[in-house]
Amino acid sequence: MKIGLFSILPDAAADPAIVAKHAEDLGFASYWVPDHTILPLHYGARYPGNLGDGPDPDYLWQMPDPLIALMRAATATTTLEVGTAVLLVPERHPLHLAKEVASLDAYSGGRFHFGIGAGWNKEESEILGGDFAHRWSQVKEAIAVMKACWTQDAPEHHGRYYDFPPVRCYPKPAQRPHPPVYLGGIMFGDQWARRVFQRIVEWGDGWLPVIREVRQLADGRDQLHALCAEAGRDPASLRITILGAGEQWRKRREVEALAAAGADQVTIWLLGRTSDDMRREIDALARELLSD
Known about the structure:
alpha/beta
């Protein structure tokens, strides 16, 4: 199973080029970053990742642009895969985003993984043009627009959210037909949202869940495979990458349990805040997870 790294704050203090190159040299498979273009000073919903009583973490408004961060990481490496975990699709126009993704995938030689989400912050989404109440309908249409741009010579689209005549949108991605599209997922209560799995089976290429226990992965995988059977889709065509949170999945036995439960890859959340801190952390993770 592949093991990747997730950096919540890839910025000047933790240069993606330095961190990614060190990760590649030690044998890690991938490097992932998150996305928040802005964060309003005042908003209603609580960050789903905040499980305590304190304020939401500062990193929510300190993130650089994920595609620029990943371009820096990809330029410094040759084999390391790079991905978004997750990019908030309703907050960008799909024609612009299609070109950015295709450019990154082309320049990296087909190493980009497109993890997407619809967002949890209503105020942020609406400031940037999202229809928050129907955000997944908007995401579905946006992904259809992007796939057309990636695979067609002169795509056009006439939909609810986007409407344009035939256009040229180049370059095309290096991956064919396009970079894999992963949908994120978090279990609330003790049940997975069936509609997330339905979307993955209908128009996605993979699942990018945050889990607390290995049994949650096994449960979600079984639901995905059942829906694949109903839809006539090969379950092997869907990739499962676990998005580690906090201090999760740092022991070899934990990673081996995830592999046995059906994960193709797991990412480890880097806790350091500077390039040097992260390199030391990556060294320790490599000794535990990658050494023979």
